[in-house]
Write a structure and sequence with these properties.
Helix content is 49%, strand content 14%. The chain is built from 13 helices and six strands.
Length: 244
């Protein structure tokens, strides 16, 4: 925070300057919840930033190391997704795998994203030539998928996938992994070849920690997007899709 001296930050957070220096230098990687709360208050973080800080502290402490992405979706989660029909929603993980989707999501997504053996949003965003045409605000979408990737545990398939993407995507991904953006649901714009630009508010519902998955719901952000989505649903009637 510009203009805030180390001694002032330590005082506002209720910790010693020496302890703050240890945190800054990585010599103490397991601060208590009260220290995290004190730093968040001193830095005037908002609710989403506080949540992000708590998440990072848990990863540093090793609490997320066992959360390896599972490849299947539990039956109750599929039932929940079915209840969201005919809305636009999918179940994914921090790698970007799309494990199940509603017919509404299949209707707005390009075939090169969903009609493949293992749909993956991260791979699509960085490696598919259709991605920049699909997402007019491509840089914001790229920031979001890399933020998710960075927050995943580094072990197992997560580490292998990240290494693969680093090699394939190059500097565009490497730069973002070095300095990941703060997670931001926000508005995503999709450009559909028939319906034009569709604007959605992206809501992310975290599933239980053992799943290491999220339900992502895209809610039309304006009347024009809602009307266009209705037309697309009529043109491509279908049902819930699980990806195997």
């Amino acid at each position: 925070m510009p203009g805030l001296r180390r001694s002032e930050l330590a005082g506002l957070a209720g910790i010693s300057v020496e302890y703050l220096v240890r945190l800054e230098q990585g010599r103490d990687t397991n601060p208590s919840p009260s220290v995290i709360a004190g730093l968040a208050t001193a830095l005037r973080l908002d609710a989403s930033q506080r949540s992000y800080l708590r998440h990072l502290s848990k990863l540093n402490a090793g609490c997320g190391a066992h959360l390896r992405p599972r490849e299947d979706v539990r039956r109750p989660v599929l039932a929940l997704l079915d209840m969201l029909e005919p809305g636009v929603a999918y179940v994914g993980n921090r790698l970007g795998d799309i494990l199940a989707m509603t017919s509404g999501f299949a209707a707005i997504a390009p075939s090169s994203l969903v009609d493949v053996p293992r749909p993956n949003l991260t791979r699509f965003v960085f490696l598919d030539p259709d991605a920049r045409a699909t997402f007019p605000d491509w840089h914001r979408v790229a920031d979001a998928v890399v933020s998710d990737l960075w927050l995943g545990p580094p072990e197992g398939r997560q580490g292998l996938f990240t290494a693969e993407m680093m090699t394939a995507a190059g500097p565009e991904l490497a730069r973002r992994l070095d300095s990941p953006a703060l997670p931001d649901a926000g508005t995503w714009t999709w450009r559909h070849p028939e319906a034009g630009e569709l604007r959605f508010e992206r809501e992310i519902l975290e599933l239980p920690a053992g799943d290491a998955q999220q339900v992502v719901v895209l809610v039309p952000a304006d009347a024009a997007s809602a009307a266009a989505l209705v037309d697309l649903r009529r043109a491509s009637a279908g049902g819930l899709r699980a990806v195997h």
